[in-house]
Design a protein that fits this description.
Shape: elongated
Number of strands: 0
Structural class: mainly alpha
Number of domains: 2
Strand content: under 5%
Oligomer: single chain
Helix content: over 70%
Order of helices and strands: HHHHHHHHHHHH
Length: 348
């Protein structure tokens, strides 16, 4: 049902993260109760639950957001309470002022929501309790600290694997796109097949965006992670390979679009085009070899990786005889893009 899609997701939060959240909440509850007896440690428990995030870096950010939000909210409540003491609408005034204070300070959404909530609780619940505001700040800091420590101490999450898989898939799809391009240069093609080839080449941009997102999450998962020293080199190697693949997407898409727009039956008979097609196949072979040899990517459910020999397919000199006047621009464009592709693959 459509309404259910608004409150559910296709994937569940990892069970380990759920367990860590529960452990952090339990420890925060008893720790705050021991250090600050007399009130239910709701602030500490909520802070611990919110701070346990998919990465240690995100946990640190949530801890700061929660603490800053509570402190600013308490200060707003104290100021409004001193100015308008005894007024029945003082809680509403504090909430409105807190909203504008968060806007003026350019705080994050999490902190912006926490400020009016804290101000409202301090004025409505703690007005008759001396020291309530200060205790709630301390309680929040206790819960946030416990959540951060638990997330960092119990198997700190890493997102290196998804980055490796995304980069591997991009490399294989780039190689497949080059193979399709080589076939189109040496075999008769229909307008429908050329259009399909271009559509498939455009999908490389989606895969490239997925690589950028996965790399960003991988970097984030290593920040402040106690295990980062063991995995930093691995991620940097993957990032270096992703940087080499990134311009290939643009080159391959440009070559595919040029062939699709300027293809005709006479193109197959051009001697230079046959040589270019062979070089494109060699580039596809070496690209697969590059992805395999540098990173040993695991299979990700998309089928087995394409087979390739263990040696690079060395290029051979191309002799360009004067092509047909209608083809020389296309041939020149393909040659230049192919040269740049080879430079990225060999690392020049």
């Amino acid at each position: 049902m459509r309404w259910a899609n608004r409150v559910t997701t296709a994937t569940r939060v990892p069970l380990l993260q759920v367990g860590k959240s529960a452990i952090a909440a339990i420890i925060a509850w008893f720790a705050a109760s021991l250090l600050l007896p007399g009130a239910l440690p709701v602030f500490a428990t909520v802070a611990a639950l919110l701070v346990v995030q998919p990465s240690v870096n995100q946990s640190f950010g949530k801890a700061l957001e929660r603490t800053v939000g509570v402190i600013v909210g308490v200060l707003v409540a104290l100021a409004i309470g001193l100015i308008f003491a005894g007024q029945s609408w003082v809680v509403l005034a504090a909430v409105v002022v807190a909203v504008f204070v968060a806007w003026a300070l350019r705080l994050t959404p999490a902190s912006s929501v926490q400020i009016p909530i804290s101000a409202m609780l301090v004025l409505s619940i703690g007005a008759a309790t001396p020291g309530y505001a200060a205790e709630r700040v301390v309680e929040t800091m206790i819960g946030a600290a416990i959540g951060l420590v638990i997330n960092a101490a119990i198997v700190p999450p890493l997102a290196i694997g998804p980055a490796r898989l995304a980069i591997g898939r991009l490399g294989r799809e780039c190689a497949d796109a080059l193979d399709r391009l080589a076939v189109s240069l040496t075999s008769p093609a229909t307008r429908a097949s050329l259009d399909s080839m271009l559509v498939e080449a455009r999908e490389l941009k989606t895969l490239r965006a997925a690589v950028a997102d996965a790399v960003s999450r991988g970097r984030d998962s290593l920040t402040l992670n106690p295990r980062r020293s063991w995995y930093r080199d691995q991620l940097e190697q993957d990032i270096a390979l992703a940087a080499r693949l990134d311009p290939l997407v643009t080159r391959i898409l440009g070559m595919t679009r040029a062939v699709r727009d300027h293809w005709d039956d006479a193109l197959i008979a051009e001697p230079a085009v046959t040589g270019i097609a062979e070089e494109v196949r060699r580039a596809a072979h070496d690209l697969r070899l590059l992805v395999r040899s540098e990173r040993e990517i695991a299979r990700d459910g998309d089928g087995p990786p394409a087979t390739t020999s263990e040696l690079p397919a060395l290029t051979s000199p191309l002799v360009i005889i004067s092509p047909h006047p209608e083809h020389w621009i296309l041939i020149g464009s393909l040659m230049e893009d192919l040269r740049r592709i080879r430079e990225e693959i060999v690392g020049d």
